[in-house]
Amino acid sequence: MLTEGSTVSAGAKPAYLSLVRRRLWLLTAMATVVLLLAMIDLSTGPSSYSLTDIARLLWDSESPIALEVIVYDIRLPAVLAALVIGAGLSVAGTQMQTVLHNPLASPFTLGVSAAASFGAALGLVFGATTLPVSLGNWVVPASAFFMSTMAVLLIERLTRWRGMNNELIILLGTTLVFTFTALLQGLQYAVPDRALEAVVFWTMGNLSRVSSTQLVLIAAILFLVMVCFMRSAWQLTAMRLGEERASAMGIPVARLRLQTILLSSVLASLCVSFVGTIGFVGLVAPHMARIIVGEDQRFLIPASALCGAALLSAASIAGKIAVPGQVLPIGIVTSLVGVPMFLVLILRRRRV
Questions:
Q1: What is this structure's pTM?
Q2: What are the distances in angstroms from CA 163 to CA 110, 155, 158, 160?
Q3: DSSP string covering 106-131, please?
Q4: Mind listing the pLDDT tens digit for each residue in 146-158?
Q5: Which strand (E) or helix (H) includes residue 348?
Q6: Cα(312)–Cα(322) distance, rounded to whole angstroms?
Q7: CATH topology of domain 63-344
């Protein structure tokens, strides 16, 4: 004989399985969109080729040499960089918003981007011109990563020392943003015009500057960080209910928050250090993922990665076709596209 509780449980299970299947189908559809955008990204550029030409090249070894050079040596690394960097920034932004309970939180809220920009400027001005060419491709991202990591470690130390809450962590990050921005502006004022041009160009963002070795490194770190987040998926999902409820469930809230902030910041630091400043991806893409699959981290983590990859790929395409014969810096495009998209998300939340 079924009791009332068992009847409710029996009725809830099919509904839950149906919800899981629906979210899996949504993830599959999102992956298909990302793949389509990547193919379009491969086919766009100053040298115009159709999707048919690109598909024929990928499946047929006998293709024009010029097409192979353009696709494999020039476009494909930038396309893959858009996918990996977009996914990394979005995943980092998703977890920042989760543990800080702030819809405006992103890796850049903690000063990661500003610190990386200042570090890259130091590398461009003092390192890249004095080191051998073999080290030149690494000195700028290494300097950017070092400076952004120092900013994250400073926040970590102050958080442990003062026991800061979410609001104070964001205020500290905002303070670091203004501090590193002022330092960068001071450096730009003092350096020669040639170095100033290199610094300004770096801060605009450029996907084509990533080498294959650097891309593999970013992808490996992204995979490891996502595995760590997936292992804590149910704890991160519970954090959205509030810290008091999460603590009542036995979740170490302070340790989980600090661990998530560190992993997200390191991931964002690595992405920014190789391609330059790219705004709004880590802010807008997480909201898009939540609208599609909800708050369950088992689906939100891969969905945010796919949304970030799709958003940066779309921005890459827009940067190639906006001005005929030229490619706009990716940072400019993401800002121009991200502002109206974020306004739409804000208005949508107000209507709900």
A1: 0.87
A2: 16, 11, 8, 5
A3: -GGGGTHHHHHHHHHHHIIIIITTTS
A4: 888 888 888 777 7
A5: helix 330-351
A6: 15
A7: ABC transporter involved in vitamin B12 uptake, BtuC (1.10.3470)
